[in-house]
C-alpha cells in the first residue's frame, strides 16, 4: 500500500515527563509505531509497547549507513519486498539441494549473510527482549521501502531520512545531560552515526567488492577518488556511478575510464532544461511505468512543438541536438563493454553529462544512438531530482520501473504509436513496410514493431503477420 505522504512515526509516552535517573529509566515508555496507515507496534487506541528506547537509538546509530544507503541484497535473489529475503533464499536453497547444486559450505556462508542483513535492516532487532512484528527498512534508488508481514510502504528518501532522524533525536534528547556513562556514549554514537569514508562504507553503498573498488581507483587515494574532499561518508555522484557500474557488470578498467572522465566534468547550467523539469507533469505512483513513459513523451512533444507535431518535425527530432541546446555534453568513449550503451551522471559539483559508449553495438547504428540519447533525455528531465540519485547506466542493469519508463519514453518520443497507426499500410509486404518506416524515421525495426503493437491495430493482423513481426524483436515471446 502507498500514500502520497505516508508517515513513519514512533510516538512515545514517556514514563516520566522529565528525563532522570539512568539512561534506561530516562528512555522508558510506551511507544506506538505507525507505518503509513498501519499500526505495527502497539494498538490503535494508542496503547503502546513498553521498553527502554535507548536500545533503538543504539540500533539506529550502528546501522545508519545500512538503513539509508545499502541497496543490494547479499544473495543473487530479488525478493519483492525486503522482509521476504529469507523466504526467497529458502526456496532457492531448497531447489539447489534437490538438484544437488549447493555445497554445505556455501549454504552456511549465504545463510550467515542473510542473518547479518536482517540484523542491519530489521528494526525489530533493536528490541530483542520484546516480541514485536518485523519492520524491514531498505533503500531503493530515490525511495525507502518499509515492509513486514501484511504491510509495505514506499517513502521519498529524503523525507524518510528526516523522519528517522526525528525518531533518533527524540530519544537522544532524553539522554543529553543525564549523568550516566551509557547515556553519554549513546549520544556520542548517535551524533557520530555518519562515519568517515572507508572501503567498508563504499562496499556497503555500491555492493561492489573491495577488489573492484581498488582497481577502479588504481593508484588514487580511495577516499578522494570516490568521496572527493569530504571526510564523512557522502553519497557522491562518483560513488553512485561506481554502484551502477558494478550493477552493470562493467569491467574495472572500463569503470575507471568512465569515473575518471566524470571526475573531470564541470557543473553545467541549463535554464531550458530546468524550466522543463519545473513544469514536468506529476506521474501518479500507481501509473504503470511504460504508460507513464509514453505520457511523458507526449507532454514533451507539446513543449518542443507547441504548434503541433507534424511528420516533418518528427523526422527532424535529433536527441543529440536537443542535449546540445540544453548545454549537456555528450562525450564519446570506448568502454570496451558491448552491453553498456551510455552512462550519465549529475550532482551538485558536476554535470549533467552523458558518456556514450562507442563500442556498444547499438550505438554503432545512428538509430540506436538516437534511442540511447532519447532514453537519457527522459532521465535528465523526469528522474534528475528524484528518480535516480546522481547516475544512470543504460544497458546491463536491472529491468526496474525507472528503466521501463525511460525505454517507453524513448520509443514514443521518436515514433509515437498513434502516428504509426495512422501510417499503417497493407500496400506492401509487412516486413518491407516495417523496414521502410524504420528507415524513414531513423529508428530500429524493433521500435517500429513494438510501437505498432502499442498502437492497438493488433486486431487487423493475421497469424502470418504476427509471425513476420516476431522476427524483428529480441523477445518475440512477449510480443503477442
TrEMBL record:
InterPro entries: IrrE_HExxH, Rad_response_metalloprotease
Family annotation (Gene3D superfamilies): 1.10.10.2910
Superkingdom field: Bacteria
Residue ranges occupied by any IrrE N-terminal-like domain in the UniProt entry: 327-449
PANTHER family: ANTITOXIN HIGA1, BLL7220 PROTEIN
Protein name (record): Zn-dependent peptidase ImmA (M78 family)
Amino acid at each position: 500500500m502507498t500514500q502520497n505522504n505516508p508517515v513513519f512515526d514512533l510516538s512515545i509516552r514517556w514514563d516520566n515527563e522529565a528525563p532522570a535517573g539512568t539512561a534506561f529509566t530516562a528512555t522508558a515508555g510506551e511507544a506506538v509505531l505507525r507505518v503509513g496507515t498501519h499500526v505495527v507496534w502497539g494498538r490503535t487506541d494508542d496503547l503502546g509497547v513498553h521498553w527502554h528506547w535507548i536500545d533503538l537509538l543504539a540500533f539506529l546509530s550502528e546501522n545508519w549507513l545500512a538503513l539509508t544507503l545499502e541497496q543490494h541484497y547479499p544473495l543473487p535473489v530479488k525478493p519483492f519486498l525486503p522482509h521476504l529475503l529469507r523466504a526467497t533464499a529458502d526456496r532457492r536453497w531448497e531447489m539447489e539441494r534437490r538438484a544437488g547444486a549447493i555445497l554445505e559450505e556455501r549454504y552456511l556462508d549465504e545463510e550467515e549473510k542473510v542473518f547479518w542483513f536482517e540484523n542491519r535492516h530489521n528494526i525489530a532487532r533493536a528490541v530483542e527482549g520484546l516480541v514485536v512484528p518485523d519492520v524491514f527498512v531498505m533503500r531503493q534508488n530515490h525511495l525507502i521501502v518499509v515492509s513486514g508481514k501484511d504491510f509495505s510502504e514506499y517513502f521519498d528518501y529524503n523525507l524518510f531520512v528526516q523522519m528517522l532522524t526525528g525518531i533518533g533525536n527524540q530519544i537522544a534528547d532524553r539522554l543529553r545531560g543525564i549523568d550516566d556513562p551509557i547515556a553519554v556514549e549513546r549520544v556520542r554514537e548517535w551524533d557520530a552515526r555518519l562515519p568517515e569514508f572507508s572501503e567498508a562504507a563504499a562496499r556497503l553503498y555500491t555492493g561492489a567488492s573491495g577488489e573492484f573498488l581498488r582497481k577502479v581507483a588504481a593508484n588514487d587515494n580511495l577516499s578522494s577518488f570516490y568521496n572527493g574532499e569530504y571526510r564523512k561518508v557522502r553519497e557522491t555522484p562518483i560513488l553512485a556511478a561506481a554502484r551502477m557500474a558494478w550493477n552493470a557488470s562493467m569491467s574495472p578498467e572500463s569503470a575507471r575510464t568512465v569515473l575518471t572522465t566524470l571526475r573531470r566534468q564541470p557543473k553545467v547550467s541549463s535554464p531550458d532544461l530546468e524550466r522543463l523539469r519545473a513544469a514536468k507533469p506529476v506521474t501518479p505512483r500507481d501509473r504503470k511505468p511504460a504508460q507513464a513513459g509514453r505520457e511523458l513523451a507526449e507532454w514533451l512533444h507539446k513543449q518542443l512543438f507547441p504548434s503541433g507535431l507534424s511528420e516533418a518535425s518528427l523526422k527532424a527530432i535529433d536527441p543529440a541536438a536537443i542535449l546540445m541546446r540544453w548545454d549537456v555534453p555528450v562525450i564519446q568513449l570506448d568502454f570496451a563493454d558491448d552491453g553498456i550503451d551510455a552512462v550519465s551522471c549529475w550532482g551538485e559539483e558536476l554535470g549533467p553529462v552523458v558518456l556514450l559508449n562507442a563500442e556498444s553495438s547499438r550505438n554503432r547504428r545512428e538509430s540506436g544512438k538516437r534511442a540511447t540519447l532519447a532514453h537519457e533525455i527522459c532521465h535528465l528531465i523526469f528522474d534528475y531530482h528524484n528518480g535516480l540519485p546522481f547516475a544512470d547506466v543504460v544497458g546491463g542493469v536491472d529491468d526496474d520501473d525507472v528503466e521501463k519508463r525511460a525505454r517507453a519514453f524513448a520509443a514514443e518520443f521518436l515514433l509515437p504509436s498513434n502516428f504509426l497507426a495512422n501510417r499503417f499500410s497493407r500496400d506492401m509486404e509487412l516486413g518491407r513496410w516495417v523496414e521502410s518506416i524504420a528507415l524513414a524515421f531513423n529508428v530500429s525495426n524493433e521500435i517500429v514493431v513494438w510501437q505498432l503493437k502499442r498502437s492497438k491495430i493488433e486486431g487487423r493482423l493475421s497469424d502470418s503477420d504476427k509471425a513476420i513481426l516476431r522476427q524483428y524483436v529480441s523477445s518475440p515471446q512477449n510480443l503477442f
